[in-house]
Write a sequence for this structure.
């Protein structure tokens, strides 16, 4: 144990800044990918709820297709299969788009489930008192649905954060690729990958705890409301 700690102490001034920069890239990848997932997921839910069969079919097909395709296959397709078609994406942007497309399928299911959890009678009551449909959504449906959607959305972001490590395979200088390069340079893979694991833990664990606390708090509130 002392020898491991001494290695960390010796190399931290050199390793720390490099891994910190790579962690920033990982955070940018996952945050931008999650933003795309939120936007595209909302569009997919709007298509499903539009009442138009063609839009509903297209949205459901996209969701089922993306959920059955491994993320790695999607990333490799974006990075290697598009250049012959005249579209060349840097690894960073291919990673963002791949994470966004992959996450959108799961975000769409979360959003749809959250909206469906609100009883139809609340919408009808709000319309009956004179609220416009968009006012019903913004002031009645969405605030309640958000309580249901927040914990699984946070979990989805944590999943995207961990999945961003696959972007190392498309030449993106995130944590995992940087760690692989450093392990080849210093020949200390155990120490370096332990540090990388600590970086992922430091980013993901607080978010997981927030998600768990939110889920407990919000479920307690729903039980109180249900008992009254």
């Amino acid at each position: 144990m002392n020898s491991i700690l001494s290695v960390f102490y010796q190399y931290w001034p050199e390793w720390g800044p490099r891994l910190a920069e790579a962690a920033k890239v990982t955070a940018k990848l996952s945050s931008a990918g999650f933003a795309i997932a939120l936007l595209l997921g909302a569009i997919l839910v709007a298509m499903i709820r539009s009442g138009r069969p063609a839009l509903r079919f297209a949205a459901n097909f996209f969701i089922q297709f993306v959920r059955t395709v491994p993320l790695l296959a999607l990333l490799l397709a974006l990075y290697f299969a598009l250049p012959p078609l005249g579209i060349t994406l840097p690894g960073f942007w291919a990673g963002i788009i791949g994470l966004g497309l992959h996450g959108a399928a799961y975000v769409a299911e979360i959003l749809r489930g959250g909206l469906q959890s609100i009883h139809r009678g609340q919408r009808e009551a709000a319309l009956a008192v004179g609220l416009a449909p968009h006012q019903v959504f913004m002031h009645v449906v969405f605030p309640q649905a958000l309580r249901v959607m927040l914990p699984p959305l946070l979990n989805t972001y944590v999943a995207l954060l961990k999945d961003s490590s696959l972007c190392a395979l498309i030449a993106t200088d995130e944590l995992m690729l940087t760690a692989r390069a450093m392990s080849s340079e210093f020949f200390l893979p155990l120490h370096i990958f332990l540090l990388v694991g600590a970086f992922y833990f430091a980013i993901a664990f607080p978010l997981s705890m927030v998600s768990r606390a939110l889920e407990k708090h919000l479920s307690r509130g729903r039980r109180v409301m249900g008992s009254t």
